[in-house]
UniProtKB/TrEMBL annotation:
GO terms for molecular function: acetate:proton symporter activity. The gene is yaaH. It comes from Komagataeibacter saccharivorans. Keywords: Membrane, Transmembrane, Transmembrane helix. This is Inner membrane protein YaaH. Belongs to the acetate uptake transporter (AceTr) (TC 2.A.96) family. One of its GO terms (cellular component) is plasma membrane. It is found in: Membrane. The chain crosses the membrane at residues 32-57, 69-90, 102-120, 127-145, 151-170. The lineage of its organism: Bacteria, Pseudomonadati, Pseudomonadota, Alphaproteobacteria, Acetobacterales.
Length: 206
């Protein structure tokens, strides 16, 4: 189904919600900042709710890939905050490292599927999804195998992943604002705009 470009493109909103929240959390994972309310609030509102809204808007555009990615990762951020708060509220026991690692690995499995789908998109999309796949694998392994140092490595890798999503969001915003590509994202076809490439992605992955 072709995309109606009379509508706004929700992808930059979803990418910014994902990217900025990923950077903030991985500043903590890299031991640069301590865990705090700012990280949890960002995860709940921008990484969670805003991404979920972007996914619903992609549904309206007929974009199955965008809808699945944004709604799923929005749900991830909301579930992560809930996962951290439930033990604090005394409702359930905290997850064991093995269970937490399994949770992260399951998200890695989902991301592996999305990463394969990104092969039909730009190089920038591929960087976001494949670096996220590595991030989930590292974080899950750090929990399961009790390797705190691996978690720190994951934090720095996660900063790269988050900033790559911010870069892609910026590229889409600036192209829409100026009417021509400003930041290169490695489109699979020479001379095509992000709008044209996005339409092809909808057709291939819907």
């Amino acid at each position: 189904m072709p995309h109606d470009y009379a509508k706004a493109n929700p992808a930059p909103l979803g990418l910014m919600g994902f990217g900025m929240t990923t950077v903030l959390l991985n500043l903590h994972n890299a031991h640069i900042v301590p865990m705090g309310a700012a990280i949890l609030a960002m995860g709940l509102v921008f990484g969670g709710a805003a991404q979920f809204v972007a996914g619903m808007l992609e549904y309206g555009n007929g974009n199955t890939f965008g809808m699945t990615a944004f709604m799923a990762y929005g749900a991830f951020w909301i579930s992560l905050v809930v996962l951290l708060f439930l033990p604090q509220w005394g409702l359930v026991a905290a997850s064991s490292p093995t269970l937490m690692g399994s949770y992260l690995w399951m998200w890695g499995l989902f991301t592996a599927i999305m990463a394969l789908g990104s092969l039909a998109a730009s190089r920038a999309h591929q960087v976001v999804f494949f670096s996220l796949l590595v991030l989930f694998f590292l974080l899950g392994s750090a929990e399961v195998f009790d390797r705190p140092g691996l978690g720190v490595v994951a934090g720095y890798e996660g900063l790269f992943c988050g900033f790559s999503a911010i870069y892609l969001a910026a590229a889409e915003i600036l192209e829409i604002q100026f009417g021509h590509p400003v930041l290169p994202i490695g489109l699979p076809g020479a001379g095509r705009s992000i709008a044209q490439q996005h339409e092809d992605l909808v057709v291939h992955l819907s």
